[in-house]
Amino acid sequence: TGYCLAGLADGREELLVYLPEGGSVEVDLAGLSGQLQAEWFEPTSGSTADRFSLTAGAAVALAAPFGGHAVLYLHAL
After folding, report:
1. Which of 53, 9, 15 is nearest to 31 (CA)?
2. pLDDT tens sequence across 6-63
């Protein structure tokens, strides 16, 4: 999407990916290791959906569970 922020918070990796049109995105997690927690956020309504875990170490394709603006929040466990 071209909209991604990555950083450290409390010593753990975090990523925010913005999808202005919703849809799906491929996120390259090859530089990370271990388990990540993921959560979708709908910024217009403030609702969250689909909290799940995934394993880092490779690229993953993820699809927003709703249309329109979507934010994917990933952080190390």
Report:
1. 15
2. 998 888 899 999 999 999 999 999 989 999 999 999 999 999 987 999 999 999 999 9
Q: Which residues, in sequence order, are bridge partners of residue 19?
A: 70
Asked if 16 and 2 count as a contact pair (C-beta separation under 8 A), the reply is no
CB count in 10 Å sphere of residue 8: 9
Considering the entire predicted model, what is its pTM?
0.89
Please tell me the number of Cα atoms within 13 Å of 57 on its side-chain side: 5
- Sort strands 12-19 and 70-76 into parallel, antiparallel or unpaired: antiparallel
76 phi, psi to nearest 5 deg: -70, 145
Report how far apart the first and last C-alpha atoms of the chain are (Å, whole number): 25
